[in-house]
Amino acid sequence: MLRQGWIELGGSCAVILGVVAGCRGTRLPVIDRTAVGIIYDTAHEADLRTGKMAGLAAEAFGRYVDTLSEPAAIVDWRDGISTWEVFYATNRGRVFGSPDARVDFGNQVSSSPQYGRAEVTLPRRGRGIDPPTAAGRSRLMPVSFSKPKTDDEVVQFGTVEVQKPESFLAGVNNQLARSRQKDLLLFVHGFNVDFHSAIVRAAQVALDVPFNGAVVAYAWPSQGGVQNYRADEPANQASVAPFADFLQSLLDGVPADTRVSILVHSMGNRIVMQGINRLSPGARLANVVLCAPDVGLGDFEEWAPGVAARCDRVTLYASENDAALIASKSLHAEQRAGDAHPPVLLSGVETVDCSTVDYTSFLGHSYYGANRHVLGDLFLLLKENRPASERPHLSKQLNARREFWVFSGNAPNILVTWHFEEDATVTK
Asked: What kind of architecture, by CATH, is found in domain 81-356?
């Protein structure tokens, strides 16, 4: 039986200083403080439409009617346990003969993308916390936890199927038709991420932002394992052409007024930035959010103008406390664009320095999905379409007369409850 349930889009995080704070003598993350927030229930919409709610209350709640409406990608919701339909494209090679007969993709590099859909169930958990698998491990960071006692405490995969491109686009367009703002989030992962983990992360981000439009993931053939970082680089470069083909077909296959936003992490930025530069002249994106990009300054400066020319807004999230990018800088003998020491400032790119926010992500590298302040900032960016100058928790700073933005206050702290009674596509 499907029931309504609360999800907290706020709360406090534990203070973890990270391994890099001392090695540079840079700014430490600030102590996290939970801000007074707003509680929004989608049942308020009926009162707003009939005029039962007016005045300051209507002004406060009215802004969330579309941005916090029930997500089009949720197919089941029970007491905070959510099942997401995530459409995917991948240039990973298909793996056959898996023990559970589930569709799976390995780390072989394919020259053309395959398409499909997957259903993944996320358990109740704190915002930004990676859910464990049945083995008691996180899919995105293989740390052992106490083994969960019930299925409701772990990630569960349902259907994973391969589709023809036209079926894939039909499914994406079905989600778009049911979304209030006709927007789409495309997530592209970084290195050391397998196929199923990419699907989980796409669903996690959609839930935690929250993003209520269509949800798509692109999975490139990361070779898996920190020791295979060097092997990931040629696989990453070989993925540029198939990703560009996929992205062009996606933009051509959705309605022209669709707001397509890309959220990309780490080494995945190399694929996305080059792929965007290969799009046809008329292609247009709403947002491209470059999270902790493991991209050398030379390449970033070459690719960024083409990205900015095809996007309404380009946002760069960077941090001084990112140990993974500090290591990459040493390996490549070149600063990475996601390293804010110093911040990378280019025309057409809004740089947000995340060094001062508290984070819980491993090595300070995955804060985009692990920190409630950054998730709150993403909500204002992706769902309310606000530039950095209109996100009040950010303060403007100058470096060589160029502006960038730093976290100086609490990002939005929101509680929302969803109801799906009128949506026949959601399991009852």
From this structure: 3-Layer(aba) Sandwich (3.40)
DSSP per-residue string spanning 174-207: HHHHT-SS-EEEEEE--SS--HHHHHHHHHHHHH
List the one residue out of 189, 204, 345 whose CA is nearest residue 270. 189
How far from 421 is each of 4, 86, 121, 219, 275, CA to CA, in Å? 9, 21, 19, 33, 40
The answer to whether the CB of 64 falls within 8 A of the CB of 70 is no
Domain ranges of the chain: 81-356
pLDDT at position 140 over 70: no
On whether the CB atoms of residues 376 and 210 are closer than 8 A, the answer is no
Please state, in angstroms and as integers, the Cα–Cα distance from residue 316 to each residue in 61, 233, 260, following that order. 30, 21, 17
- CA-to-CA distance for 186 and 243, rounded, in angstroms? 12
**The model scores a pTM over 0.85:** yes
Q: Which amino acid is at 395?
A: S
Burial bucket for residue 103 (CB in 10 Å: 0-12, 13-18, 19+): middle
Confidence of residue 99 (pLDDT cuts 50, 70, 90): low
Residue 23 has pLDDT above 60, yes or no: no
Give helix then strand counts, H and E, for the chain: 13, 15
Helix (H, G, I), strand (E, B) or coil at 221: coil
Q: Per-residue pLDDT for 137 more than 80?
A: no
For residue 73, give both structure tokens. Answer: 């990608």
Block residue for tokens 């801000």: 35
> Residue 359's pLDDT is what?
65
pLDDT, one tens digit per residue, over 10-19 is: 332 222 233 3
Structure-block tokens of residue 390 = 């209109």
Residue with tokens 């300054």: 297
